[in-house]
Specification:
Largest sheet of chain B: 3 strands, antiparallel
Helix content of chain A: 10-25%
Order of helices and strands of chain A: HHEEEEEEEEE
Shape of chain A: flat
Distance between the termini of chain B: 34 Å
InterPro entries (chain A): Cupredoxin
Protein name (chain A): EfeO-type cupredoxin-like domain-containing protein
Strand content of chain A: 35-45%
CATH topology of chain A: Immunoglobulin-like
Shape of chain B: globular
Helix content of chain B: 55-70%
Mean pLDDT of chain B: 88
Oligomer: heterodimer
Number of helices of chain A: 2
Number of strands of chain A: 9
Strand order of the largest sheet of chain A: 1-3-9-8-5-6
Strand content of chain B: under 5%
Strand order of the largest sheet of chain B: 1-3-2
Number of strands of chain B: 3
Radius of gyration of chain A: 21 Å
Structural class of chain B: mainly alpha
CATH architecture of chain A: Sandwich
CATH class of chain A: Mainly Beta
Low-confidence stretches of chain B: 1-21
Chain lengths: 133, 473
């Protein structure tokens, strides 16, 4: 009697987990998401064109000397808080961030000056991930 | 160094950004890699099967505890020491709140309250020992006034109706709203005023109802009490220090209070929302709300009424996560009731088993906050040297800058892996022991754990999933 209940329960809960599976697969671990993976060299230069609809991710290896050139379709003030840098970018003038990727982590470059319907006036436009070698 | 450039760098590196959950800046953790995520999830499932199969025949009388007698003088000394520390720190926090620097990242009060105390001290209460009843300045002041009142020969305490227990989850939600949604947490004077208001309520409650106020109604005491039940060290009686198996405090017989289930559900819901609000999924929700044509009139109307839209949406998000977790929990309890042939009423089962999920939530909380504690926690060092902005340098750390490299991404991954697995294993183990306390037969107890273990696997996998998501602000 009890074992029938266990089986029924397992089937019910198991089938409830089914819709969860594609959700898990779709988010964050998708290899097609806009990520730039730069090789594990000691000195890298990356040029990125900002897409203001989605924030792309640039991945570099820890210890590299990075020169990041950011182009934007709109005039923005960019802040790279984790490395204490800021720069202006406009359609003809790319912004440049030069830093030593000494520590691992996921660091955001935020733009000030875009206001959306929710009243947010800062937006992350690019993520820099410094990954372990 | 003339102007402390280090603190300036720290300020800019961790500048309060209105859209984030905390004033103390973004977290820089890398997402948990797929391999670690999958192996942790697999290990959790394997441990659960192991737990279910290895159920003991009867509730073991061996309770894995060791009592140490402490010399009365030593115990008294520690009581006085802890009480003094609590009162002194409270005084410094209030002073710094009103006299200190106005930036949250430089003010001793805001750093102490939101980083050191609300995250660090609560985790300490769960992982090492609960000291809050001794340290609690609100309780000390209120109880002190009660003694004064008694000495003046005035009346006895009124009995506290148990329904006041509901103040605990309500208070917890207020604190969570303050921390995660409101901007008041970033304003030191606002925090000072709120702390004094809380003190006022505690004094009234303590003077009118006596000590039971802090056992039943005081939100902070009850929240820390819940965490304290997980700790391996406790003081069951004056002069006795007990070393016990972590989490075995959850198995103690204690009086059920109104709001018990709501309190733990809110705790777990708050911890989950904290993590979920940094996932790309949540960012997608916000982007959708920002772009949806059908929502625009409502959003514009709300804006005209003076509402901050982001706060409204975050508040709704928190309410939904808590609501979904509560609903999911009752579905699991209904399954437990059904699978055991309804031998116990559902309400009782709900109360008995909610705390069993705590080890997983605390483990995720630790994994989520370890880098925050080690990085934003460093802010206390420059703040402590000059809490009242008088130009002091008490500890020589006035110009200290924050070292973000103190913990690396890989260290955090392994801490996350180990703590979440350990939390899951502990939950499964405690769940079993609990079931043996609740149900008469060992077979019924083992069967009752099937839905609960599935719920634990779900909570653990959700925690791992959140940890594997790239942090999105």
């Amino acid at each position: 009697m009890a074992s029938n209940r266990i089986v029924t329960l397992a089937v019910v809960f198991g089938s409830a987990l089914y819709p969860a599976e594609p959700l898990v697969a779709a988010t964050g671990l998708d290899p097609d998401s806009p990520v730039w993976r730069v090789g594990a060299e000691d000195s890298v230069e990356v040029a990125v064109q900002l897409d203001l609809k989605t924030a792309q991710t640039v991945q570099v290896a820890v210890g590299s000397k990075v020169r990041l050139i950011v182009q934007s379709p709109q005039a923005l003030e960019l802040h790279f808080h984790a490395f204490d840098q800021s720069a202006r970018v406009s359609p003809g003038k790319p912004a440049e961030f030069a830093f030593q990727a000494t520590r691992t982590g996921r660091f955001a470059i935020e733009a000030h000056g875009i206001v959306d319907a929710l009243g947010r006036h800062e937006r992350v436009v690019l993520y820099v991930e410094v990954r372990p070698r | 160094m003339t102007l402390p450039r280090g603190v300036l760098i720290a300020m800019m590196a961790l500048l309060p950004v209105p859209a984030t959950a905390h004033a103390f800046g973004a977290r820089y953790d890398l997402p948990l890699p797929l391999g670690l995520y999958l192996s942790a999830a697999g290990l959790a499932v394997a441990l659960s099967f192991g737990g279910v199969l290895l159920y003991p025949q009867k509730s073991s009388r061996h309770s894995f505890a060791m009592d140490i007698r402490v010399l009365p003088g030593l115990a008294g000394f520690f009581r006085v020491l802890l009480a003094s520390l609590g009162l002194i720190l409270f005084a410094v926090v209030i002073g710094a709140a009103f006299a200190g620097p106005p930036e949250a990242t430089r003010n001793f009060a805001t750093i102490w309250i939101w980083v050191i105390w609300w995250v660090g001290y609560l985790l300490l209460s769960a992982l090492v020992v609960e000291t809050w009843p001794l340290v609690d300045p609100f309780r000390r002041i209120a109880v002190g006034l009660v003694h004064v009142r008694r000495a003046m020969g005035q009346g006895r305490d009124a009995g506290l109706p148990l329904v006041f227990g509901w103040l605990a989850p309500i208070g917890l939600l207020c604190i969570a709203w303050l921390e995660m949604i409101s901007d008041y947490s970033e304003g030191p004077p606002a925090m000072g005023i709120l702390a004094l208001i809380y003190l006022g309520v505690a004094i009234i409650g303590g003077v009118v109802f006596g000590r039971p106020w802090f056992d039943i109604a005081d939100p902070i005491s009850r929240v820390i009490g819940v965490f304290g039940r997980l700790a391996p060290i406790c003081a069951p009686a004056p002069g006795v220090l007990r070393l016990r198996f972590p989490g075995s405090g959850l198995l103690d017989n204690r009086r059920a209070l109104p709001g018990d289930v709501a309190l733990v559900v809110c705790l777990i819901g708050v911890v989950l929302f904290d993590g979920l609000s940094e996932t790309p999924a949540w960012a997608a929700v916000l982007d959708y709300a920002s772009g949806a044509g059908w929502l625009r009139p409502t959003l514009l109307w709300l804006r005209e009424q003076g509402f901050d839209l982001l706060k409204v949406i975050r508040g709704l998000g928190l309410a939904c996560v808590i609501g979904l977790f509560l609903a999911g929990y009752w579905i699991v309890i209904a399954a437990v009731a059904w699978i055991t042939g309804a031998k116990e009423p559902m309400a009782r089962l709900g109360v008995e088993f909610i705390e069993v999920l705590l080890p997983i939530a605390v483990a995720y909380h630790l994994a989520h906050y370890i880098s925050y504690l080690l990085i934003a926690g460093q802010l206390i060092l420059p703040a402590a040297s000059d809490p009242f902005a008088l130009g002091w340098d008490l500890f020589g750390t006035r110009g200290r800058s924050i070292d973000i490299s103190v913990i690396g991404a890989q260290d955090i991954w392994w801490i996350a892996f180990v703590t979440v697995i350990a939390g899951h294993a502990l939950s499964v183990f405690i769940g079993h022991r609990r079931a043996l306390q609740v149900f008469s037969g060992p077979r019924t107890a083992a069967i009752s754990q099937v839905p609960l273990t599935l719920a634990m696997v779900g909570l653990t996998v959700l925690s791992l999933w959140i940890l594997s998501q790239p942090i999105t602000q």
